[in-house]
Specification:
single chain; mainly alpha; Growth Hormone, Chain: A; 2 domains; 16 helices
């Protein structure tokens, strides 16, 4: 890898770290807002506003990076995120929090798919999925940093400090990225720029040979997002129902995220160096088997922790690995559009996860069954992954001069 690409990749990873910290900030701040007379239960729509913004920004704004250049969307997205996050520190009502979180989500949604696309373009061809996974690993890293540093930040600046920190980081990243990144438009590197004539680049994904590859990519992304938000939202609540303590449930929830980082990097290396479809079938098949094993196994902290490291950690890994597949399914001129529209589809899956879990809890579904249900989306992902080789052949038909992929 060229030394000239290392600094941009580090800064791009910093954008994901900033996002992880920003996501965690709201959850960490809510319990400390009671002194302002704000009920924590009223923040449900505030959390949803960020997801809505991420989806809308990914679908409507991020694809502009394919036309006007990645740097414009990344730098402006980071800058607006910084300003909106700093403004969140001044909010005094639930409505104000909702508005600023929506703006933050829109800005992040515009920037992040372009960060993923640019990281793929900067990476060596043989390591595209791996580099994209390592860069996106900044999200759980940022969440961890927020949790570890929150007490000190709150001591210094009370709850607004939780937003000042990522807001300042976003503005600093915007400045550094403006100076470091190239402003060249992706299509300049294409052999035939005339192929990208659509007024809205994302519409190209729904025409001709690109429909099938995008359907394969987006379906797996949505199903995995359903599992990811189902499990991350309710795992600390479900495990105590299986007889585990709250502290044990919290520790398990943290351990499985660390396992997800390792699985994600390993699976991405496999995606780069082996058959793409087979690597994904193996990943999602292992996830399904782990949840099936939980379903038939009596609750045991050690056994369940090992199984959930594969299952929940694997779902987290899926969120890291699938954008890497995108780099093989689509040419550079469509990467931001594909990742951006994929983000929107993933948010639709994410919206379904927490209500599904809430319904199962309301109907007193046992913990083993609750977790066993998570095997179903994983099985569906494995089935869809069988279509990846056919989707790659579509890319080869649309781009005859593109390097062949296994």
């Amino acid at each position: 890898m060229s030394p000239r690409s290392i600094l941009p990749l580090v800064l791009l990873g910093g954008v994901f770290v900033m996002e992880g910290f920003d996501i965690a900030a709201m959850a960490l701040a809510v319990p400390r807002l009671t002194d302002m007379g704000l009920d924590p239960a009223g923040f449900g729509w505030v959390f949803t506003a960020l997801l809505v913004g991420l989806g809308a920004g990914g679908a409507l704004l991020a694809p502009l990076g394919d036309r006007f250049g990645r740097r414009l969307l990344i730098v402006s997205g980071c800058g607006i995120t910084g300003l909106a996050t700093l403004a969140t520190a001044t909010a005094g009502s639930i409505t104000e929090f909702l508005i600023w979180r929506l703006v933050t989500g829109l800005a992040l949604g515009a920037a992040l798919p372009n960060v993923s696309a640019l990281s793929a373009e900067l990476a060596p061809e043989r390591l595209r999925a791996t580099i994209m996974a390592v860069v996106s690993a900044g999200i759980p890293l940022g969440i961890a940093i927020a949790g570890l540093t929150a007490p000190e930040i709150i001591d210094l600046g009370n709850w607004p400090g939780l937003f000042v920190a990522p807001g300042a980081m976003a503005l600093l990243l915007a400045l550094m990225l403006q100076l470091i990144l190239s402003g060249e438009r992706p299509e300049k590197a294409e052999a035939d720029p005339s192929k990208n004539r659509a007024k809205l680049p994302q519409l190209v994904l729904f025409s001709g040979l690109w429909i099938f590859p995008f359907a394969v990519f987006a379906t797996m992304l949505a199903l995995n997002a359903l599992n990811l938000y189902l499990l991350n939202s309710w795992l600390p609540t479900v495990l105590p129902q299986a007889g585990m303590s709250l502290d044990a449930a919290a520790r398990i929830s943290g351990v499985v995220q660390l396992a997800g980082l390792a699985i994600g990097i390993g699976a991405s290396l496999l995606l780069d160096r082996w058959h793409k479809g087979a690597a994904l079938v193996l990943l999602f098949g292992a996830i399904a088997l782990s949840f099936a094993a939980v379903f038939v196994t009596a609750p045991d902290p050690l056994v369940w922790t090992i199984l959930l490291c594969v299952g929940v950690g694997g779902a987290s890994a899926g969120g890291m690995v699938l954008p890497g597949l995108c780099a093989y399914l689509f040419p550079a001129r469509l990467l931001s559009s594909a990742v951006g529209m994929g983000v929107l589809v993933a948010r639709l899956g994410a919206f379904a996860g927490p209500p599904l879990g809430g319904w199962m809890l309301a109907n007193e579904i046992p913990a083993q069954t609750f977790l066993g249900v998570a095997a179903l989306p994983a099985i569906a992902c494995a089935v869809v992954a069988l279509m990846v080789p056919a989707a790659l052949r579509r890319r080869e038909r649309a781009e005859p001069n593109a390097p062949a992929t296994p």
